[in-house]
Amino acid sequence: xxxxxxxxxxxxxxxxxxxxxxxxxxxxxxxxxxxxxxxxxxxxxxxxxxxxxxxxxxxxxxxxxxxxxxxxxxxxxxxxxxxxxxxxxxxxxxxxxxxxxxxxxxxxxxxxxxxxxxxxxxxxxxxxxxxxxxxxxxxxxxxxxxxxxxxxxxxxxxxxxxxxxxxxxxxxxxxxxxxxxxxxxxxxxxxxxxxxxxxxxxxxxxxxxxxxxxxxxxxxxxxxxxxxxxxxxxxxxxxxxxxxxxxxxxxxxxxxxxxxxxxxxxxxxxxxxxxxxxxxxxxxxxxxxx
Amino acid sequence: xxxxxxxxxxxxxxxxxxxxxxxxxxxxxxxxxxxxxxxxxxxxxxxxxxxxxxxxxxxxxxxxxxxxxxxxxxxxxxxxxxxxxxxxxxxxxxxxxxxxxxxxxxxxxxxxxxxxxxxxxxxxxxxxxxxxxxxxxxxxxxxxxxxxxxxxxxxxxxxxxxxxxxxxxxxxxxxxxxxxxxxxxxxxxxxxxxxxxxxxxxxxxxxxxxxxxxxxxxxxxxxxxxxxxxxxxxxxxxxxxxxxxxxxxxxxxxxxxxxxxxxxxxxxxxxxxxxxxxxxxxxxxxxxxx
Amino acid sequence: xxxxxxxxxxxxxxxxxxxxxxxxxxxxxxxxxxxxxxxxxxxxxxxxxxxxxxxxxxxxxxxxxxxxxxxxxxxxxxxxxxxxxxxxxxxxxxxxxxxxxxxxxxxxxxxxxxxxxxxxxxxxxxxxxxxxxxxxxxxxxxxxxxxxxxxxxxxxxxxxxxxxxxxxxxxxxxxxxxxxxxxxxxxxxxxxxxxxxxxxxxxxxxxxxxxxxxxxxxxxxxxxxxxxxxxxxxxxxxxxxxxxxxxxxxxxxxxxxxxxxxxxxxxxxxxxxxxxxxxxxxxxxxxxxxxxxxxxxxxxxxxxxxxxxxxxxxxxxxxxxxxxxxxxxxxxxxxxxxxxxxxxxxxxxxxxxxxxxxxxxxxxxxxxxxxxxxxxxx
Amino acid sequence: xxxxxxxxxxxxxxxxxxxxxxxxxxxxxxxxxxxxxxxxxxxxxxxxxxxxxxxxxxxxxxxxxxxxxxxxxxxxxxxxxxxxxxxxxxxxxxxxxxxxxxxxxxxxxxxxxxxxxxxxxxxxxxxxxxxxxxxxxxxxxxxxxxxxxxxxxxxxxxxxxxxxxxxxxxxxxxxxxxxxxxxxxxxxxxxxxxxxxxxxxxxxxxxxxxxxxxxxxxxxxxxxxxxxxxxxxxxxxxxxxxxxxxxxxxxxxxxxxxxxxxxxxxxxxxxxxxxxxxxxxxxxxxxxxxxxxxxxxxxxxxxxxxxxxxxxxxxxxxxxxxxxxxxxxxxxxxxxxxxxxxxxxxxxxxxxxxxxxxxxxxxxxxxxxxxxxxxxxx
Lengths: 290, 290, 378, 378
Hints:
A: Rossmann fold; 6-stranded mixed beta sheet; C: Dna Ligase, domain 1; D-amino Acid Aminotransferase, Chain A, domain 1; Rossmann fold; 4-stranded antiparallel beta sheet; 13 helices; elongated
């Protein structure tokens, strides 16, 4: 499985907060091994039966935690991530939105230098139906059908939407990764796709891009070079997005003349990747490439 | 070969300086592929027939340089190292002494995060007689006899002295690495020993330690755990060094009660590593362990 | 947050870069006085945060204070790409020998800072990239390393200077200042275009702009205040919507779009367009939006003069469908426009029930809903 | 460079840590005035950069200004571990509830900063490590990350405080200050021992010391000047030797040692000791030493009152043997002491020849040379 496996033990940072507590419960319900929570100063309480500690280090020491889901507010999220990296987790999923990009730039570089994989920030996380493990906020109801399709996306809700369409048409999902909507993310669309492509249990990959940056173009180039080795179906949101405007996601902006949806769609098609016109066309194209 | 190989192509940073130019010539004489020099603002001249450039990037682009020997003054040495890292070298040997330790701390961390091996600072470099390649300042005359002994040392001249004794008693040298006398070095005595131990062409390792730090103790522990897998003979300088005093090398100081020669010798002996009483005893002990 | 030219130049100046003398003027009288103080000829530059203001008549040279007064009367109130000119930057006219390009961005792929440098500038980087791609050099700067002499060396020599040239240190000063602005002010872009070599041989940022990370504005109260006073590139609706707390972008159609999540909302716009409709806006209520936010979102579109139909497309993840439904119900209490709602997700059934109570139709799939919205807007 | 207690505390204070009121005094009169100004009882603390000054009588409590005057007369000029007391730090006497330990160093193995924290302090870290190793907690701080709240949390809770205790923020302030001193002043050690909880419940650095990286003194002209004015832990010979530019450490024997390279020089000392002699010093002429430096090195030892024999052991790497030989010849021109010279290396033959001209014997091997030196010193 990409990123997570049956031994993944999760700590929720910000476990006593509204969102942290809510999603901690959803993760437990889904089947995730959420073994600890962390909220500085709240050590000693429990949240949905899960013990909460003051530090990640304690959670690691007492429960062998190796992954974290970060729900703390933007101003404290980078510290939470760095704390998790220093405490020795292998995977950090940063759900938090609105983190200053320069702070994340440094944190992501630091995490990488310590061999820690970061997903997000501003992301829905990762979910793997075959092992019923979710680190994030995807709706459990959508991810009930295990299978051999990987979904890699820059979006949150659009990922659920397309996953829902896939399941509805009979596809099962191996893993869905929302890489996050910020300009700087731990693993970008290209890198995440490259990772899932290496999983022998994945037959095809659905890639959901959007305006801004050039991860889609870089991925198209890799695909054309044969580096992916598996069929890809793409969808790119934002054809009607005007240039120079930030479309909700901090990373969804056409800047210095690059990053528009048209260019991305062109790059995919030229590389031989079919691109769906609407989210609902994705399952049809997927059936064609399999 | 550890660290260097027949494809190692060297740039000398500070090539037009007194020491840089002097040792560039000695390296060429020894057989090292010194293909470029760098001195900002002096691009265009040649030193001993080697073209000099303004930037390392240019040297890399034009000559496929993959290693650097840094001879620039202490105030500029960290910049030179960072430039080489960013230009894409794989190995950087920093000869320069008196570099502020905090600056080197950051630079060494950065180099590591980019996958670059740093030797030094304040070191004699690395020399491999079997492939007649030297990146550093070791006297050529000492390293004329290829063989299967590795020498790893925190010292400069003491390394030559002991290498000289080895050769005199009929041993050949596979590689000699002076890791540098500063508190923070790119590869410390333990790490360098671990590297040479993995070389199938090395039969035994001579380790030369000195007061300060705990690299010798950590190495002894590794050896006791069986992680080295090859015989080691050690020598530790500074039994008569008083505590709290810096013995020439910035790193040679007993601080907060740790780092004295006695403790290191004890650690080696308890781990089963024979320790020579004088440099001249090293060949004798080596003969015994082989 | 997009900084005006004068704001960006003030930052350059703060970090030691020589900039042409300039004064911001809000009235023709201020322009006249500024022109007298600075000494003619002067350049009047419309402070609007869009590219290409020169071609649109937003930059004029005046040879006397009187001419400046006259010209400024025509310039104030001008519309340039939808933005009204409210401020003119009156600057000394500088004779230029050569125009160069220098910008600093965050490179997403390498997670490093990236300088783009070209010895020829004055036109957009896109145009340079098209006409002379070989002229653009990329110089990467790691955030843990910062700008060093070797970066400066690389940039200054690419721009065409020798280490012994007097311009070398001026380029160094510009490079250092840009990096400091970038880091100290959480900028996403710092650009000088043109970075000019004057007839006098000086290197100066003749024009400059910067974009600051909105997520970091809490660290920069001075900028947050400046944005409050001068929202610059947003319409009234955009400004209002952002104050409520969600992402809003004005488009030119008549079907109002509300979605949760940027991707889904864009996709909803695209879908409307795909079926022949024209989206009026992008309105993302975001993850974890409260009932209040949803209510305000719908109200915005109810009050929007161009919006004829509202299309709410919610696929619930972190957002709870019942909250959305309650927000819609509350907004519609004060009268309405045709609304098409599609909800799928967390607490979905509860949400459906709430909406059913007020007679709002619900769609299972966005595709059908989009078709319906387009149909209603005809 | 070792900082005095008062210098270190001034840095703590600069970075916002509350320190006990204190005045540095250089004469008994200054002590008297300081005691009056601060208000008795006061503590008189000898400013000598060695550990264990308390046990050696370097710390005294005075209940009146007169008692302070009296006590200080005995303390000025005292020798503590070879260093003369020239300054007393007169500080407010503080009643202490609990003594803790906190230091910050560079960890060589991990290449990170490392805090060592113990809830019990007041004795050397070595003693804590021996008696209660489980009390020492290690908190690593990466140089690219710096001190963050989570480090502070880890330290403060280990020292025994709860987040809601008033001492929590005081510990945070001490931790931040120590890190800033470390980084801003290129320190290799910053230590507060004891870090005290006073009877009033305040956390204050009751004693503090720091060591600054000598290689970084060029960045800190204030410290370099302070070191110039008060060389603190060096004898006159050491001071002189360092000014010439090489590494010199005083030992207590009679065989003067000159070597090139720290390792070889230490090994030469050890060798002399091994054969029954007693090294008088460590003198490393370093790599690339010039003829002038060698000459000055030999001269130092010629003038050294305790040195009876000089043993020069050079294995040439970056050092050129002919330069060494010429330096020795020049030094010996003014008269001499027995010298044993061993040179091996670059330009070796030339060096040999030069020495032969002035009749100085040359040894092939350091072992024979060491034996000869020991023999000559008998």
